[in-house]
Amino acid sequence: MKLNNQLFITNNPITSDWVNLSEFSLSMDIDDFNILDFFNSDHYKNDFLNQVLKNSNNDLHLEPMFIGNKLKMSKFKIFNYTELISFLKNYMSDIEVWGEDFNSNFLKIYNKVYNYFDCINIFYVLDKEDFNEEDEEVSNDFILYDYYLLILGVDTSNRKLFTFEWASD
Fold this sequence. Notes:
Layout: E1 2-10, E2 17-25, H1 35-39, H2 42-47, H3 51-54, E3 77-79, H4 81-93, H5 95-98, H6 100-113, E4 122-127, E5 147-155, E6 160-168
């Protein structure tokens, strides 16, 4: 596996809604790829963290939400393209839970990353809402995130893994 590209997407410097998008090439046969292997790899521990944060002299960034070697497949929601889009639209439409500002900020980010989903065949999603701070799979920074979605997409045709760390802190 090799990190090809990484983008940090935000609405503007004032809002705290962001996506850290990473693209990896898969060196193994796609049939041999296991999503949990990614979480147990150095790629999750090292490459996954946004390069801007890694290169800063500032240790004030939050840890990724999930502890890779503690994750189990049963915690993932698995979607195809249509199901993921439906999930995200439902997620952002719950104004009673999130409020008007969330809906507006989430939609702006959604519009910036939506096109990346086109080539992906299968999505694995972890949602902060499915965990609590006592769960062994979550980092100590769990309570500092307003919301946190980790979307992993596999493009089987081109043997690529896309990670979308989508959050607000």
